[in-house]
Amino acid sequence: MCGIMGYVGPGQAAPVLLDGLQRLEYRGYDSAGIAVLDREIDVRKAEGKVERLIDLTKTSPLNGSVGIGHTRWATHGAPSDLNAHPHSDPSGAFVVVHNGIIENFYELRDRLTEDGHEFTSETDTEILAHLVAEAYRGDLAAAVRSAVAQAEGAYALVVMTVHEPGKIVAVRRISPLVVGLGVGETFLASDIPAVLHRTRDFLIIEDGELVIVDESGATIETIEGEAVDREPLHVDWDSEMAEKGGYEHFMLKEIHEQPAVVTETLAGRLEEDGSAWLDHVDFDDDFARNLNRVWITACGTAYNAGMVGAEIFRRLLRLPTSVEYAHEMRYADPLVSEGDLVIAISQSGETADTLAAARLAKERGARLLAITNVVGSTLSREADDVLYTRAGPEIAVASTKAYMAMLIGQYLLALRIGAARGLADSDLADRVIHGLHALPGDLERLMQSEAAIADAAKRLAHAEDVYFIGRGLDYAVAVEGSLKLKEISYLHSEAMPAGELKHGTLALITEDVPVVVVITQEALYDKTVSAIQEVKARGGEVIAVAYEDDDRIGRFADVVLRVPRTDDLLGPVNAVVPLQLLAYHVAKIRGNDIDQPRNLAKSVTVE
Ligand code: F6R
Predict the structure, then answer these.
(1) Is 602 tagged catalytic?
(2) Sign of the alpha-carbon dihedral angle for 91, 94, 99, 104
(3) What is the 352 CA–ligand 1 centroid distance (Å)?
(4) pLDDT by residue (tens digit) across 82-93?
(5) Which domains does the chain have, with CATH numbers?
(6) Active-site residue flag, 502
């Protein structure tokens, strides 16, 4: 977790660092700080968002053209000015920022305390400043190596010292780190969009590497000290894509980008005859033909997308497919075996739990396929095959367009496998192929019904509990709708299969408890209606998400949010959109911070 920045160049470091930190706030935003080196190192930090730090630097400016910065998501020690990074050694000559966790923190701190070191914060980071200072013998890179050799865990570390001005040393141990190469200036950041408006040329630092940065560029070595030759990556993203583009919130912008995201994710990949050409998916037809079992593993919204994916695989391919929470799978001794396909889904490609489950799958001889949105992410580099979702940078913490792109990626993947081993139901496959091409238009149309959804949000905004129900694929969508509502509205909500309601939870349904029902799956329609009747009989208010030509639902539901009809197997793509917008508008009525909800961060790189 956390966002880190570094700058070496001819200009003032502070504005570059602060600007980068604001772009990295999705990684954590409970406190922030920067350190700038002139003749001495000067530090400013503040609890709260980067905005507060900016105000502080206005009243108390920093001068200097070398600096490092950090925006924090607390792990060790509460959010506070004191615990905010950067952290220094007692002399103030060494300063560090760090993203991740030092697992042997207590051991190291005890050892340092016995040796007479005193600490001013509760963080694990501060010990790194002490370790570097302790090891320094005139070579910063060597001192950083020594500190890293002692500190176990997954992290990225950036260090600067008064003894070697004009230089920053950084290390990547799992947590992401990139170098931006400018003209006469060099940047360090947790991700590419943080400095994309300043340069388009990047060096991606790999796990286990150390980089020495000065204004002329960067030298990469392994932590052990071997030279690494790395070609810069030229990034074509439009930096406009990372801005709000006229919407009040990134989340709203990202919801509205979904028609374009579907177009992008499909582009050049799906022929009219159903053949799917997936760049970076390299398995051959024999592998697909001999496949016995598929596992999907992920967390949060990516897991919810996997729930849909498992059903796509089962229905299109009749292939046994299960979906597993990555944090459970990694400790469950799963029966993954050679020849299985394990699909790890992760927007960021950096989620620690998902990476661990993916690595376990590889160890057991499975083929690992990543579905991810981030080119160059750890997951993408470790996988045998990668399906990039092409959703563009997702800034809002609550994922919307990345979820959508994950769904599309899974339809494509099923069609690719089906082309090799045969599709279970070719009529269904034809309808899906046809439906996929129609989706961007459907979604554009759906966006026009936002006013009705905003109106429905008023019914939920003051509730205390909300239930989401559905059956089959509708249940998978209900789970995602409920998660979206929880994340940004802070309302208690729960999703369950509609058939489960009567087995206990019905006791909680009263006239004060609204129930959102997703009802698109024809084969289960009447069963879902029965659940609606059970709710209505207890006075519960029902908001239904149903196809636009469904002329029965009006009899049962209090409010109907309409979505374009498509094949039921594609139903989740359209049905999730009203739920995303519903969550957005409820959160807006409640006056919450929609793009950066409390207690959450965009990328969960700790276990
Ligand atoms: C919710 C959300 C999270 C993420 C989860 C996994 O809106 O975004 O639940 O889906 O933390 O993240 P990735 O996809 O980056 O692995």
Answers:
(1) yes
(2) negative
(3) 11
(4) 999 999 999 999
(5) 3-243 (3.60.20.10), 252-443 (3.40.50.10490), 450-589 (3.40.50.10490)
(6) no
